[in-house]
Specification:
Blueprint lengths: L2 H11 L12 E6 L6 E9 L6 E10 L2 H14 L4 H15 L9 H4 L12 H25 L1
Antiparallel strand pairs: 1-2, 2-3
Length: 148
């Protein structure tokens, strides 16, 4: 088994920051109708604007190993960083996952997310990997609105 497969399985079996927690300003529930994966994700911000800190990302994810691992990777990569950094991380993940295998991913930008680069070659699985990221961007938008 290669390193990336092991990394995905590790995040699946031992998800980082799993479990829904309070406080939170934004919450989103997303479902992948193709396969039935589901995620509920919460975001807690401290501060306002692009320099606000993503203090906590908590989630409840049910689905395949790719979906759960992606939620775990997301939480690990964006928690503790700024909103600006979180958006950059999301854009780097989205670009890699929608590249059809052309973008190998930037480990500096997405950390363990590079383990999901192979998913880009399988369009049906891209939705699994992006599900938690869709929930995150929605919850982040809500959280920013609550801060105003």
């Amino acid at each position: 088994m290669d390193l990336y497969q092991e990394l995905i399985l590790d995040h699946y079996k031992n998800p980082v920051r799993a479990g829904l927690r309070d406080p939170f300003e934004g919450q989103s529930h997303q479902v992948n109708p193709t396969c039935g994966d589901e995620v509920t994700l919460r975001v807690h911000l401290v501060g306002t604007g692009a320099d606000a800190v993503v203090e906590d990302v908590s989630y409840d994810s049910m689905g395949c190993s790719i979906s759960v691992a992606s939620a775990s990777i997301l939480a690990e990569e964006v928690t503790g960083g700024t909103v600006s950094h979180a958006r950059e991380t999301y854009e780097a993940m989205r670009a890699m996952l929608t590249s059809k295998g052309e973008d190998p991913g930037d480990e500096e930008a997405i950390g363990d997310g590079v383990a999901l680069a192979g998913v880009a070659k399988y369009p049906a699985r891209v939705k699994c990997a992006l599900l938690s990221w869709a929930a995150f961007t929605d919850a982040l938008y809500q959280a920013e609105g609550a801060q105003k």
